[in-house]
Every structure is written in structure tokens, then in C-alpha cells.
Amino acid sequence: MNILILNGKQDPAADARYRGTFRAHPTYCNHLSRDHEVNELFFWFLREGGETGVVHDLAKASRYAQLLNEVCMVGFERFEVVEVAHGFDPKGQGELLGYDISSGYNDSLLWWGLQPQPGINVLPGPIRELADLLHRHYAPLLGQYGLFKSAETADQCLRSMDALQRLSPNLVRALLQFQAWPIP
Fold first, then answer.
1. Where does 21-110 show beta strands of DSSP type E?
2. For residue 107, what is the DSSP state?
3. Angstrom distance (rounded) from CA 106 to CA 20
4. How many helices (H) and strands (E) would you count in the chain?
5. Which residues, in sequence order, are bridge partners of residue 80?
6. Interatomic CA distance for residues 6 and 96, integer angstroms
7. How far apart are CA 45 and CA 54, in angstroms?
């Protein structure tokens, strides 16, 4: 089982309901000693999770999230343990939040809620029209957690985004840069 330990928004411009893979990962708790259990688990998280943050021990991940919420992140959004699966085959028995479209279990194409972006206005008319169509069709299909409710819808959206990206290389990257770093 592939597990992520995630908190609130990784980017302030993220869709408020989004609970997919593009969220904050745990950090070291500076106000506690290095040998405190929560910091010991932080080093386990780094060793096992590496760059992607994917761990495999559900008991340790659950304990770490619990400690983060109790002693380290008081007053902030709560950490949660989330299973991530390649393709559309979740293994766990918990609540299905939905289907994200992400690379490496981190970089999501849904964190911005598929909302129209200011950068779209600089694109040629036909590309702008197709991007708007993608927004009008798929944004309303995002569920309560900003994720798709079905694997089929997620797959269709990914294929549509890929087709649009092939017509206008770097389109998605350009749109998200406008979202994350507005240009006055």
C-alpha cells in the first residue's frame, strides 16, 4: 500500500475543497527535541518516503499523523493518512476521497479546481475555446473534495487535457503559473 501523510494547501491559490495529492507534507517540529517521538518519525518519513513522500507502514504513518496533530501542528489544518494508488486500483478500506490526476503521487492537475485562469486570454482563440470547454465540462464534475468521483471521468479529463496540451505545448504549465504567481 502506498501512503501519503498530507495536510492543508501546498499553494494558497488551491481550490478550498481540494484534498488530493498536491498538499503539504510533514515537517520537523523545531520546538521539540530531536529525540521526541514525532521528530523520530519525521526522520523515518524522510528515509522511507524520500522525495515523493510515499511510505508503506500504515501503523507508523497513522501514529505520525496523530502526533503531528497533537503536539506539532496545533491550530493548523489536520494531517491525514491517504492511500494513493497507481491507476484506478485502491487497496485500502477507508473512505474514497475521489480520483486525482497526478504525477508521482504529488503534482496534481486538479488542485486549482479546473477554474478559468487569467493567462488564458493571451492564447489563440481556438485554444482558448477548447480550454474553456474543458473547464465548463469537467469542473462541475469535481466532487466535494475537488476530485473526480469516478475513475472513468478522471481518465477522460486527463485525455482531454493531454489533447489540448498537444495542440498548445506548455499550456497547463502556463495557466498554473498565472494562478500561482499572478502578474500585475
1. 80-84, 102-103, 107-108
2. E
3. 9
4. 5, 4
5. 6
6. 15
7. 8
Residues 6+ apart with CB under 8 A from 80: 5, 6, 7, 19, 65
Phi, psi angle pair for 80, to nearest 5°? -140, 155
Distance CA 174, CA 176 (A): 6
> Is pTM, for the whole model, over 0.70?
yes
Burial (Cβ within 10 Å: 0-12, 13-18, ≥19) of residue 79:
buried
Looking at the DSSP bridge assignments, the partners of residue 81 are 5
What the block records as the C-alpha cell of 161 is 487535457
> What pLDDT, in 10s, does the model give residues 90-147?
666 678 889 999 887 888 889 989 988 777 777 788 888 898 899 999 999 999 999 9
pLDDT digits (tens, 9 = 90+) for 135-169: 999 999 999 999 999 989 999 999 999 898 888 88
Torsion of CA 34, 37, 43, 45, to 10 degrees: -150
* Distance in angstroms (rounded) separating the CA atoms of residues 175 and 182: 10
**Nearest Cα residue to 96 out of 107, 108, 85:** 85
Q: Which of 110, 111, 104 minimizes the C-alpha distance to 52?
A: 104
